[in-house]
Amino acid sequence: MITIKEVKTRKDLNRFIEFPNELYKDNPYYIPSLYMDEWNHLKKGKNPALKYCDLVMYLAYNEKGEIVGRTAGILNHEYNKHKNVKQVRFNRIDFIDDIEVVKALLGAVENWAKENGMNEVIGPIGFTDLDKQGLLIEGFDEEDMFITLYHYPYYQKHIEALGYGKDVDWVEYEIDVSSIDDETIEKVTKLGEAVKRRNEYRLIKPCRLKLPKWGRKMFKVYNDAFQDLYGFLAIPDDVMNFYISQVILIVRREYVWFIVDKNDDVVGFALLMPSMSKVTKKHRGKLNIFNALSYLKAIQGKHDTLDMYFVAINPEDQKKGIPAIFMADALKIVKKNKVKRALTGPELENNHEVMNLWGRYPHRQHRRRRCYTKKI
Asked: CA dihedral in degrees (127, 129, 365, 177; nearest 10)?
């Protein structure tokens, strides 16, 4: 018999965050979330998105009192109002290979949704578009990213057996940057210079102290560029500051690009990071004074893999060739740093504008994630 308990205490929250580490402790492809990031996202008073989102978290226990699953329910009032829907989102779902466990977990979320007058459950999807989302359905033998979630293949089977159907998929690509030759770099550089001259654009790489200022300009472009994408709601100022504070300490300046016009308005940006997967796995998602140097070396030291965090272009400037400006600089840097590959984050399967950016370079689709929906 499965018992569902709502997370109420600090001890419960700690168990909720730690459960995936136990479930995947022997899995070579799983990458833990950073514990402090999870705590800040799920603790009231820490995450400003909780001002307009209701959150409930559940743990599933077996007859021996062992934790065998977890999930969260999110009611985003602002999104529902903006899109005129009555949805609850499930997120951070993990469970052993037992359909009775996931049935109990999603049943608890569905009942909570009904109690709040909702008629649909979707997920896995988070508070905002910047949260980790999507159930892994392809790429189980590929090492996960620091900014995504890993799932066992049986998740899909059990969730679909409970009446959940596909709403949308995200895909991810591995780009082989090691095989990009000097001739290609020269062509992209010439194109980037022509785009700058024609549109009076400039490339800016601000120092760390100025990143908060530029980060807020970045999010204005982000809000405009992604406004029509699935599940998206514009990021308010306090949520902007929350995410900026999380990223600013790990940013490596050479992998940050802002493209500005003659009025110093940001028209495009890109943020890449040396992969933190190995160091995060080594320390099981814990960051403290004893291992901080290890994380610093991963960020600022030698690396062969880059994670693509953000790429966005102002809608009015999307046909002007802006990607060539930061790609020209990026290709020179990855060659200098002897980077072998770059990994994109999840991209909507119908977001052809973004996919076309990678089509010019050696690449392969290596993962797919899905958001499910069910009427209740």
From this structure: -120
The SS3 call for residue 317 is helix
Domain finish residue from 171, 193, 223: 171
How many Å apart are CA 78 and CA 75, to the nearest integer? Answer: 9
Read off the pLDDT of residues 328-374 as tens digits, 9 standing for 90 and up.
Answer: 999 999 999 999 999 999 999 987 777 777 777 889 999 999 999 99
Give the chain's length. 376
DSSP states of 2-24: -EEEE--SHHHHHHHHHHHHHHT
Residue 191 and residue 130 in one domain: no
**Is this prediction's pTM over 0.85?**
yes
Instruction: Reply yes or no on whether the pLDDT at 62 is more than 80.
Output: yes
Among 153, 171, 189, give the residue marking a domain's end. Answer: 171
Strand 120-123 and strand 67-76: the pairing is unpaired
Going from the C-alpha of 149 to that of each of 26, 32, 38, 93, 113, the distances in angstroms are 16, 8, 12, 10, 24
The answer to whether position 373 is within a domain reads no
pLDDT at 92: 97
Which residue, among 207, 109, 202, 214, has the nearest Cα to 162 in the 3D structure?
109
Domain co-membership, 56 together with 145 = yes
When divided into structural domains, the chain yields a total of: 2
DSSP H stretches of helix in 57-98: 77-83
Instruction: Classify residue 142 by its DSSP letter.
Output: S
* Pair (267, 289) in one structural domain: yes
Show the DSSP H helices in the chain as ranges.
Answer: 10-23, 35-42, 77-83, 99-115, 154-161, 182-199, 211-225, 237-247, 277-282, 292-300, 323-336, 352-358
**pLDDT per residue as tens digits for the range 76-111:** 999 999 999 999 999 999 999 999 999 999 999 999
Task: Domain of residue 317: give its range.
Answer: 175-368
Residue predicted with more confidence, 243 or 104: 104
Task: For residue 374, tell me if it sits in a domain.
Answer: no
**Secondary-structure percent of the chain, ordered helix, strand, coil, rounded to 5:** 40, 25, 35
Mean pLDDT, residues 146-158 taken together: 96
Sign, CA dihedral 115-116-118-122, equals negative
